[in-house]
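Supplementary Methods. Inverse-folding protocol.

Structures were first reduced to a discrete structure-token string of length 191. This string, shown here, constituted the complete conditioning input.
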């Protein structure tokens, strides 16, 4: 049982390490791959919106879903034709997300009943998120490569952790297997 649990963890870890190395060695390729994934998502959503438009019974939803399908289709085409500006736009979306997260964290710091340590932690993480967003918003061209590098580092660390956990699960399973056979006669003699 432990081997069946540990094998997927180790394989997932190895795959994440490989993806992390690729992202760190070739960040521009990683950015391009993310743009292509965005385009694929936009095309798939265009098809789904089109299907929803023709399955609707009234004219209002049909028009709305067709409009969304056209917007998705246009976004996918733009992403493929102009991957550079698309990557920068995606970085700006991350910057806006970071600003929203930062201001929310600061707002939460002043919620009722927060202790001083929790309040300080909320403020610090909020300020860090705002700084992160400001850097990305000021230089989205560099931000795309930075996102690829951060993704690579995250994948590398995540992969190493998964491999370590998988090896530990396998090791503990072997330890249990060596102990359990000697425990079985005790349970049979108790019956």
């Amino acid at each position: 049982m432990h081997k069946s649990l540990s094998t997927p963890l180790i394989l997932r870890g190895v795959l994440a390490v490989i993806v992390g190395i690729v992202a760190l060695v070739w960040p521009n390729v990683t950015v391009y791959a993310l743009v292509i994934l965005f385009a694929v998502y936009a095309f798939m959503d265009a098809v789904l919106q089109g299907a929803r438009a023709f399955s609707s019974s009234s004219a209002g939803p049909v028009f709305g879903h067709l409009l969304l399908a056209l917007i998705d289709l246009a976004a996918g085409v733009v992403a493929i034709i102009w991957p550079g500006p698309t990557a920068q736009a995606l970085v700006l979306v991350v910057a806006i997300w970071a600003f929203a997260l930062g201001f929310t964290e600061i707002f939460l710091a002043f919620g009722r009943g927060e202790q001083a340590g929790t309040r300080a932690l909320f403020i610090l993480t909020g300020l860090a998120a705002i700084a992160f967003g400001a850097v990305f918003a000021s230089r989205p061209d560099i931000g795309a490569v930075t996102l690829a590098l951060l993704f690579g580092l995250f994948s590398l660390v995540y992969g190493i952790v998964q491999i370590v956990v998988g090896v530990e699960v396998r090791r503990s399973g072997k330890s249990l297997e060596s102990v359990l056979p000697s425990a079985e006669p005790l349970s049979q003699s108790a019956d």
